[in-house]
Amino acid sequence: MNNNSFLLPAKAICIAAFLSLNTVMYAQKTADISAISEKTLSNILEKNRTYYTQGKVADYIPELGKMDAKAIAFSVVGKNGKIFNTGDVHKKFTMQSISKIIALMIAVSEKGEADVFNKMGYFGTDKPFNHFSNLETTGKPLNPMMNAGAILTTSLISGEGEKPFLKILNLVRYITKNNTIDYNTSVYESEKSTGHRNRGMFYLMKNNGLISGNEDQLDNYFKQCSIELTAEDLAKIGYFFANQCVRFDGDSTYKNEELARLIQSQMLIAGMYEFSGEYARTVGLPSKSGVGGGIAVSVPGKMGIGVFSPALDQHGNSAAGYHMILDLVKQYNLSLF
Ligand code: DON
Fold first, then answer.
1. pTM > 0.90
2. What is the C-alpha to C-alpha distance for residues 332 and 37, in angstroms, rounded to an integer?
3. Residues annotated in a binding site
4. Which superfamily does 36-332 belong to?
5. Which residue has the higher pLDDT, 9 or 306?
6. Closest atom, ligand 1, to C-alpha of 147
7. What is the pLDDT of residues 269-301, one digit of tens each?
8. Domain regions of the chain by residue span
9. Pair 214, 244: CB distance under 8 Å
10. Is 97 in the active site?
């Protein structure tokens, strides 16, 4: 018996062990999302309910400070648009920065990607959502997810006065199939009267030749941030971008694979602001947060997740919301990576 033939049985055992390990890993990778139920969600919600104590409700927009810190909701729109809800499912909150992905879709549909991204970057960030980067250096915003880029994006949507805002509102209504959705006028007034930092960005971009209109355009941004919806509506938005801009009920009026890819890439690299890198490591899914306490998540090709809990961590992302998403992702191996 030569050395090689002596090693053969050991080799065979190693290969068999490797293959079975691979099978186990593969099985985990394809965890059955059709097993997700309301019970799954409520277990995860209860486990994470108290995380709100580790965050703080945003009050830099005074009207937002009135939110009930204990409110919490968790929704999933899964295979074939099936909806699962748990928690304060009827509780409405303002979408805030989550509206930025809707505005981006409209601006790119109208102007084309090259035109929009000629005026801003595709960059990630280590800066908070309201940072002036890079307006004082390159003169252009880092990306369309931070406030500066989002204000610019909305200003690029065609139409006088309130028309660009109405396009955003109508698209949210379409995606959620919920015509009752509207904006909260108190939150809008509150942000308009205190949003001087955003006003500063608006005028700096006007000075840089990126914005040509008047303050109506900034008002449209304040209004889009004040659109009120539920966690279920957010899950439907997540589902829409996860499925090539096809609605949860299968309506494909806006089907556009390329646009969905663009929006999800921005969600992945900047949707959670300076936390996006760590979030990509832990959750690994395109997501967009808002200071109203919502997060919309796209699981590409599969499903949408919507969470709500208004107490925010130091990055401006929902504290309990993040942990609910993280647990669902771990339980069903939903990370892209
Ligand atoms: O412009 C603002 O500051 C708010 N209307 C939106 C900020 C926001 O939601 C940041 N996201 N976490």
1. yes
2. 12
3. 97, 147, 191, 198, 221, 273, 291
4. DD-peptidase/beta-lactamase superfamily (3.40.710.10)
5. 306
6. 1
7. 999 999 999 999 999 999 999 999 999 999 999
8. 36-332
9. no
10. yes
